[in-house]
Amino acid sequence: MSKKFAKGLALILVAVLILTSVGMAAKKDESTKPKKIVAFLDTISIEESGQDYFREEYKKFTGIELEIIQPSHNQYYEKLRLAFAAGEIPDVVELAEVNYVNYATEGAFVDLEPYIKKSEICKKIDKKNFESVRVAGKIYGYPKEIGDGPVTYIRSDWLNNLKMKPPTTWDEYYQLLRAFTFNDPDKNGKNDTYGMTAPGPTGDNTISFANNYYRDIYQDANPEFEKVDGKWRDGFLQPSMKPALERFRKVYQEKLIDPEIFTNKTSTCREKFHSGKAGIFTYWYGLWMTKLERDIQKNFGPTAKIISIPAIKGSYYQARVPGVLAITVACKNPKGVFDWFLDYSHDGGQGQMLFVHGVEGVHWVKKDGKYEKLPLLFNPGALYTKNFYSPEMVMTPWNDPFEMDPRIINSKNDFVKSYRQASLPPMPESRKKVDQELMNLKNEILGKILLGEITVDQGLARYKKESEALGLKKILADMNKM
Fold first, then answer.
1. Which residues pair with 226 in a beta bridge?
2. Domains of the chain, first to last
3. Mean pLDDT across the stretch 175-195?
């Protein structure tokens, strides 16, 4: 967020607060049910999927008119910035990670903690979901779902071909990488595979360093800022980073992993996994389990299968900070929006059914006592999967009437056996000034280590020296004050 935009946003928000504070005070003892809610959303089902039916059903259930503003995904945050700059501020906004932090620290959102503490529904939700989105001591966002994360998938037919078992330790994982690279795991008589594929190991934003796709290699190390025992620290400087980088360099130098990791996108990795170039791919648990296997079987038939595995010994999976819904300070009835939109969508009943599965007769039907998904309105060849929240990631205890694919359940169970919930690192001014430089420095050092241009010790020594020059000590002190 530019300084110019931040100043403009601040002025707009001050004016909004002045204009709305009288109205909120006057209504505090009255019914909080709003007549209309304006929601600026990104990941809700598109209009072609029956969004109008969803809005109509929501109004039928609640009596509230719901206006949804949904720009194209690749323009979402630009359109949101323009809406705030023009003073056309909605009641509720969907955000993720760094954008949520930036808007929250600029004072754009209502503190939801007073409502959360009084909510009977929120009492049923694991507190770490709310704690993961705390910014500068306050909770400005209501998580949409539990934080998801990548789990390691392995071609089980390749395991069978080589008479090998899923790895449980680093040594077993390393041997599997070698076997998938050199032992012709697909039995096509060619030397045309490698152990694993993954997207670029260097990060492209101030929150994610892309380490989640390499958890089996990093194990207990984390190159990002991380919170340990209530204190923020730079994981790149921790003792666990040296052996992690040595493992990373070893498998890259021995050509056991995709040589194109520096340029890979997640889409290109999926294609390589589908086409049989690699036997291991660490990717999102849940629905992706079935999607990945389905696409592999398109190329190799029904005998081509994958399994998910728990994190190997000494490692862990990491749940990303979930996306949130935040109520803006422009909202004239924040408690009403909290009760009738945020809480309602997680009520374990009518509201949750609507926000997860959509509308009966449009997105799903009940036949002979069994719930079934209907084909997509714009693509009859595919079934409807979700409306807004993913069924495997709901936060409240819920007896979902839809039968879930066992593969999806297994991938989630393998993830939750040993996962850590990420938190949003604070963004003090000292960090904002040099954050991109720190990120670039980590990226450059990691690249040079993997390519063999410098040793691990040289890389870590360089990072220590140059990060200190960039003011890392003050950054960490400031982060731990927030």
1. 233
2. 3-146+323-396 (3.40.190.10), 150-319+423-479 (3.40.190.10)
3. 97
